[in-house]
Amino acid sequence: MKNILIGITSSIASYKIYELIRLYRKNGYNVKVVATKNALNFVSPLVIETLSNNKCYYDEFAPRENVEHIELCRWADILVVAPISANTISKIAAGIADNLLTSIACAYIGSKKPILIAPAMNDNMWNNPIVQKNLETLHSLNIKVVEPAEGFLACGTSAKGRLAEIGLIYENSLRLLFQDKKNNSKKILITLGGTKEKIDNVRYITNLSSGKMGIALCDWAYKLGYDVCAIATIDIDKPYKTIKVNSALEMLEAIKAADFDYLIMAAAVGDFRAANVSDTKISKEDIKDNFSIELTKNPDVVKEISKNKKGNQKIIGFSLTDKDMIETAQRKLKDKNLDFIVANEIKVALNSDKNKVTIIGKNGKMIDIKEDTKDNIAKRILEVVCD
Predict the structure, then answer these.
(1) Please, are residues 19 and 47 in contact by the beta-carbon 8 Å criterion?
(2) Options 2.170.120.30, 3.40.50.1950, 1.10.510.10, 3.40.50.920; which CATH number does 3-178 get?
(3) Lowest-confidence segment of 7-11, 81-85, 192-196, 282-286 by average pLDDT
(4) Rounded distance, CA 49 to CA 45, Å?
(5) Cβ atoms < 10 Å from Cβ of 325
(6) Does the pLDDT of residue 65 top 50, yes or no?
(7) Taking CA 289 as the corner, what is the angle to CA 285 and CA 292, rounded to the nearest 5 degrees?
(8) Per-domain residue ranges for the chain?
(9) Cα angle vertex 118, ends 112, 121, to 5°?
(10) Looking at residue 67, what is its pLDDT?
């Protein structure tokens, strides 16, 4: 498992890093934390040690057996400094190593391992041309910067300077950690969520899909360095491009307009839609005892796209069923002209954080993935279907 070294500098936003530590640990990463002495005015070493299950480092000259900044440098797979102050940005850019964190940064830059920083400061400090010049220096050293967000600042103004959302820092750090540069030019289009088919201007027909499997696929594709676009029926706030759609027809048009190397159809596309959609709300006062909705078939979205598949494109479908799982998936694989299909069962997959799947290729080869988190399964699916 990967080792994450977090650096914390002095900022009112420092307490937010408790959540970042928790996120890494929840997902199985090893975490160690280095704090500047002034950062300890805002965070507690005891809390950090409890959350990370490791010592909190802050004293460069504490008694020790090893050269601490070098040992931590060797241990870490990535250095994440969040929040990073204008002071520490400027020190690192100038090569100053006057505390444990800046000493680690100085050595870490020399190691050429990935570094991510997330600044937080007053907007005037952020806009200071000296700070911006120092950030350009860090950019030139391939240090990834997650820029601050707009919002209410501790100084009482509302401007750019807030620490970026913890989820955004987390996703960007993992992309930096896992990305394979050969994937950067490859485009993955992933559909997710259950489609919504309008009955009138307030009601619709949908299904119980949560979109969790599709989000996990998007997240891992982004981490692995692919150019990701999600076509989603639910609202998601992620660092990759997202196109919001509702109906099966909207999804079909969005896919047709997109350019992709891989299309992964993880969405639960409704088979039917209302033949006639009312422009106004259907009132129960206007209905006697029974009310019927005439349904018409939706197009088979993935089958329509497969008809015009280019030679270098791969299309991956999903098959969700409660009986004859393998036979149903094999039939769909052939009928829809897919490269792969991912078969899963309703009783395991629906509205759950876990899944178990069988990946079937057009060559007939089957790969069973035992029950696991959707996050772990998503990574395995991408390893199989993307070359």
Answers:
(1) no
(2) 3.40.50.1950
(3) 282-286
(4) 6
(5) 18
(6) no
(7) 95
(8) 3-178, 182-385
(9) 135
(10) 52
Exposed, middle or buried, 3 (CB in 10 Å: 0-12/13-18/19+)? middle
Per residue in 286-344, pLDDT (tens digit) is: 787 788 899 999 999 999 999 999 889 999 999 998 889 999 999 999 999 999 999 99
Round to whole Å and give the CA distance between 267 and 232.
8
Give phi and psi for 330, each to the nearest 5. Answer: -65, -40
From 56, 73, 106, 155, active-site residue: 155
**Alpha carbon distance, N-terminus to C-terminus of the chain:** 23
Decide if 125 contacts 18 (C-beta within 8 A).
no
Residue 170, class by beta-carbon neighbours within 10 Å (0-12 exposed, 13-18 middle, 19+ buried)? buried
Q: Determine the Cα–Cα distance for residues 34 and 72; give it in Å rounded to an integer.
A: 9
| Whole-angstrom distance, CA of residue 142 vs CA of residue 110 | 12
Q: Is 155 a catalytic residue?
A: yes
The rounded distance, in Å, linking the Cα atoms of 6 and 214 is: 29
Encode the chain in three state secondary structure. Answer: CCEEEEEECCCHHHHHHHHHHHHHHHCCCEEEEEECCHHHHCCCHHHHHHHHCCCEECCCCCCCCCCHHHHHHHHCCEEEEEEECHHHHHHHHHCCCCCHHHHHHHHHHHHCCCEEEEECCCHHHHCCHHHHHHHHHHHHCCCEECCCEEEECCCCCEEEEECCCHHHHHHHHHHHHHCCHHHCCCEEEEEECECCEECCCCCEECCCCCCHHHHHHHHHHHHCCCEEEEEECCCCCCCCEEEECCCHHHHHHHHHCCCCCEEEECCECCCEEECCCCCCCCCHHHCCCCCCCCEEECCCHHHHHHCCCCCCCEEEEEEEECCCHHHHHHHHHHHCCCCEEEEEEHHHHCCCCEEEEEEEECCCCEEEEEEEEHHHHHHHHHHHHCC
According to CATH, the topology of domain 182-385 is: Rossmann fold (3.40.50)
Domains 3-178 and 182-385 fall in the same CATH topology: yes
Six-digit token string for 326:
């393998």
